[in-house]
């Protein structure tokens, strides 16, 4: 997959992570989108490096989608822990 495919996958992964983890995010739509894209890259890297699962050449590989959504969920949770209370003031 090329970089554009990973960005599109990250957009979808961010939306799926947001649906799985509802609530108010400090970054809004833009922040969630960036977290989804970064989560897709990090999830794919972790999957290929530590789980010995190569990054698929196709866009519709289930393991690639699971790793991208998982990476986005982890980043979204970390983002909420670190910056979640910044809007309450």
Folded structure, characterized:
The chain is mainly α. The protein is built from three helices and no strands. The longest helix is centred in the middle third of the chain and has 22 residues, at 28-49. The model has no long low-confidence stretch (mean pLDDT 75).
The chain-level mean pLDDT equals 75
Residue fraction in strands: under 5%
Give the termini separation.
Answer: 43 Å
Major sheet size, sense and barrel closure: none
Q: Summarize the helix and strand pattern as letters.
A: HHH
Q: What is the radius of gyration?
A: 13 Å
Which class do the helix and strand fractions yield?
mainly alpha
H/I helix tally? 3
Shape: globular
What is the percent of helical residues? 55-70%
Indicate the multimeric state: single chain
pLDDT below 50 for ≥5 consecutive residues: which ranges? none
Q: How many strands?
A: 0
Secondary-structure blueprint:
Elements: H1 3-20, H2 28-49, H3 62-83
Helix pairs in contact: 1-2, 1-3, 2-3
Short description:
The protein is mostly helical.
Name the descriptors:
89 residues; mainly alpha; globular
């Amino acid at each position: 997959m090329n970089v554009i495919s990973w960005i599109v996958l990250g957009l979808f992964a961010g939306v799926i992570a947001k649906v799985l983890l509802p609530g108010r995010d400090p970054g809004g739509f833009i922040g969630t989108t960036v977290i989804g894209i970064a989560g897709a890259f990090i999830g794919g890297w972790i999957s290929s490096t530590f789980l010995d699962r190569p990054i698929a050449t196709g866009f519709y590989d289930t393991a690639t989608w699971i790793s991208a959504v998982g990476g986005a969920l982890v980043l979204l949770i970390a983002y909420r822990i670190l910056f979640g209370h910044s809007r309450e003031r």
